[in-house]
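Intended use. Records like the one below are meant for learning the mapping from a protein sequence to its folded structure. Do not use them to infer anything beyond what is encoded.
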Amino acid sequence: MTEQESPAQRRQDLAGRLWLTYYNRVLLEKKLITEREYGRMALKINAWKAPTL
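Structure written out for the chain above:
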């Protein structure tokens, strides 16, 4: 059975994904990661869910 997410949990997930996406882009722009690494990390970020408190 799947449990519905609360609005607070959805906001936390979105905020977490936004920060991870931002840092991933910064790493790419500073050439600290390759485009392939960037793409692979983007896929992981999109699947990520914030831990529940």
